[in-house]
Amino acid sequence: MSEEIEIARQWLANARNDLLNADNNLKSEQIPFDTVCFQCHQAAEKLLKSYLVGNGQEHPITHDLLLILEKAIPLNSESEILRDWLAILMPYSVEFRYPLMIGTCQLRMMRRKREIRPIKSATTSRAGGMRKAPRKGLGDKLCWWSLICEMA
Asked: Which residue in 20, 26, 61 sits closest to 43, CA to CA?
């Protein structure tokens, strides 16, 4: 196994842990929305970076999901489908860290909570349109879409 693939797998393992943290917190009686928002952003960031590294690319040192996506698009033009979802996650990296913005993050998360579950089931459903993304990267390359589907 190449060093790049091993590093990509480490990024992926960390993303899975972020999603597990978010899922666990969403099940609690008192949901820490700031933590859930942050963990979802972190998971998306790590998935994108995993994809880049696994395909032999350097990832930008940034938390800007759209900037990281721009590096992935030349590898797979269909990754453009992620743009709107990543834009939704963007504020959650920083906004909740500042007292005046915490309420904004919580409100957005409550509005999005009903959208998250249908997205999750659509990515895991073979009949769901999102599953149709190409499995580019067979062999020693990583397919970002299959990683997301496996994690959902």
From this structure: 20
